């Protein structure tokens, strides 16, 4: 299988100095600020069906209709049209759009972890610039954006991971293999959270590992807003549906830490490869949804998880078991794989010995360290309900993407937080797509022949030529050799018509193995 992944991040939005701001309008305006003249081609929503389910059927249930209605319940009629035509498809292969009341950035498809980290950080740069432009356009008020997952008022917004896997693996195998991993990986991927949401809890400001655990209600399902499931079943492969599935993982937090982002995506990629090989260890949790919340909320950091059939394990032991199995299957394959395995092992050891050693790498540890310093400096008390607002304000400030005020970004500037990818590389990723996936073809098409592009999706581009409309199918442009041929074609063509001619002469795309993964190029600690 090709290793192919991406991230979708919904940003929290705040307008300081304007209590009457229409947050839907502001989110739309932030997106449109990247290119205000509406010259971008349109996104082809007609090719998407949010009711297709990975279990092999099309959902037709009342709550599915309610969720679809909820997606537009905040929109006035003129905003519905603006929402449909407000997407910004970027020359770096990414997509920028409004999702309910949140501006959302989807990275280009990436085959290498550090490319994904750079593309994710490029998204922060793009969003920050959009907020700056929108602030300048307003008569008053300042827009602020946060890369987090909660407003502390019962609303959650996501950071979704997308991984390409083969269609041949049974869905029940996917669930059985993924759930123990997803429930327990929060011990190193969680962003940390002050307080509880969605139910009454103990007084005071309890501290959780993850911002998302409060909002999941079931094991599997297609919904992403009301009845969130640990394994999302929406079936939109953005590739040949006969060959591929796209796993849409919605349980993860938005990470400020580059290290946590890389480990979150990298460990899941290796687990999926093990899953497809049929070599997953047999770990069955008694009640995964309850365990997801319990691990997040455990103040003793013992993280127990009851097992099916009786007995208990803990999140750390489950992760060690999965790491051992992945290492036996994958170790030595390439430098990127070994980087993931090395740091996965190191993080688990430090979590078991002294989590404080992970300040600057794991978000929940880093945020808790900052909060403890704040509590000591201000004379606050975790157990005093009157201090909850103060602590949640600091929690939110940790996630500000503005380097001038974000607490995590301040730690990066001080050298406390790990930076895996240099800022100049992230700056390049604002305009340049990864060179070894179809995102390069899509981005370069927009850059060079944008006037001819009428509609597009992740896997299809429609060009308007003198001879009429021509559609370029990228659903099988995934294997290394095919990607290289398509990317050479878009660089060498001198016109959109010439591009079509060159593509017609290529061998038909076919699935193949992605090989030759390069080692990470940059990491400073």
Name of the top-level CATH class of the largest domain: Alpha Beta
Number of helices: 17
Low-confidence stretches: 64-69, 511-525
Q: Main sheet?
A: 6 strands, antiparallel
Tell me how many strands there are.
Answer: 20
Mean pLDDT: 90
Provide the structure class: alpha+beta
> What overall form do the CA principal axes indicate?
globular
Radius of gyration: 23 Å
Plain-language structure description:
The chain has 525 residues and is of the alpha+beta class. The protein folds into two domains: 5-425, Creatine Kinase, Chain A, domain 2 (2-Layer Sandwich); 426-504, no CATH class. The protein has 17 helices and 20 strands. It has helices spanning 23-32, 62-71, 77-84, 113-137, 171-184, 186-189, 258-276, 288-297, 315-330, 335-353, 363-378, 388-398, 407-414, 423-429, 438-449, 480-492, 496-504; strands spanning 5-10, 12-16, 42-43, 52-53, 57-58, 88-89, 95-99, 102-106, 142-146, 159-166, 193-194, 207-208, 218-221, 229-232, 244-249, 304-306, 312-314, 453-457, 460-465, 468-473. The chain has a six-stranded antiparallel beta sheet. A hairpin with a 5-residue loop joins strand 6 (88-89) and strand 7 (95-99). Mean pLDDT is 90; it is low at 64-69 and 511-525.
């Amino acid at each position: 299988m090709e290793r192919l992944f991406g991230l979708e991040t919904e940003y929290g939005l705040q307008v300081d100095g304007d209590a009457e701001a229409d947050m839907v309008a502001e989110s739309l305006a932030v997106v449109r600020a990247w290119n205000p003249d509406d010259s971008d081609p349109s996104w082809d929503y007609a090719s998407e069906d949010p009711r297709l389910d990975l279990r092999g059927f099309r959902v037709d249930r009342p709550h599915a209709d309610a969720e679809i209605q909820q997606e537009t319940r905040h929109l006035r009629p003129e905003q519905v049209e603006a929402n449909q035509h407000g997407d910004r498809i970027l020359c770096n292969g990414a997509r920028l759009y409004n999702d309910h009341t949140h501006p959302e950035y989807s990275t280009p498809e990436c085959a290498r972890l550090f490319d994904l980290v750079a593309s994710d950080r490029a998204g922060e740069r793009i969003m920050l610039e959009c907020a700056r432009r929108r602030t300048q356009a307003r008569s008053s008020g300042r827009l602020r954006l946060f890369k987090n997952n909660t407003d502390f008022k019962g609303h959650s917004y996501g950071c979704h991971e997308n991984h390409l896997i083969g269609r041949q693996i049974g869905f029940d195998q996917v669930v059985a293999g993924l759930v123990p991993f997803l429930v327990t990986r929060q011990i190193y991927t969680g962003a940390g959270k002050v307080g509880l949401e969605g139910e009454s809890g103990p007084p005071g400001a309890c501290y959780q590992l993850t911002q998302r655990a409060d909002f999941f209600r079931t094991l599997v399902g297609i919904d992403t807003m009301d009845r969130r499931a640990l394994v999302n079943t929406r079936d939109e492969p953005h590739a040949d549906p006969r060959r591929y599935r796209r796993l849409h993982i919605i349980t993860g937090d938005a990470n400020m830490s580059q290290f946590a982002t890389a480990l979150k995506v990298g460990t899941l990629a290796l687990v999926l490869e093990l899953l497809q090989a049929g070599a997953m260890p047999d770990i069955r949790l008694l009640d995964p949804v309850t365990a997801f919340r319990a691990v997040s909320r455990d103040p003793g950091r013992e993280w127990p998880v009851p097992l099916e059939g009786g007995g208990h394990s803990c999140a750390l032991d489950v992760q060690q078991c999965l790491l051992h199995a992945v290492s036996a299957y994958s170790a030595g394959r390439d430098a990127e794989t070994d980087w993931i395995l090395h740091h996965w092992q190191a993080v688990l050891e430090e979590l078991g010995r002294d989590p404080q050693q992970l300040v600057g790498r794991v978000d929940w540890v880093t945020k808790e360290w900052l909060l403890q310093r704040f509590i000591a400096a201000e004379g606050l008390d975790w157990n005093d309900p009157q201090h909850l607002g103060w602590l949640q304000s600091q929690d939110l400030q940790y996630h500000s993407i503005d380097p001038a005020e974000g607490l995590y970004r301040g730690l990066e500037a001080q050298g406390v937080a790990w930076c895996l990818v240099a800022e100049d590389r992230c700056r390049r990723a604002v305009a340049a797509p990864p060179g070894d996936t179809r995102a390069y073809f899509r981005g370069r098409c927009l850059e060079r022949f944008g006037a001819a592009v009428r509609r597009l999706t992740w896997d299809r581009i429609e060009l308007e030529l003198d001879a009429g409309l021509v559609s370029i199918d990228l659903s099988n442009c995934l294997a290394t050799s095919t990607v290289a041929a398509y990317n050479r074609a878009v660089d060498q063509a001198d016109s959109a018509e010439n591009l079509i001619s060159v593509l017609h002469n290529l061998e038909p795309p076919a699935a193949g193995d992605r090989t030759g993964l390069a080692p990470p190029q940059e990491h400073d600690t």
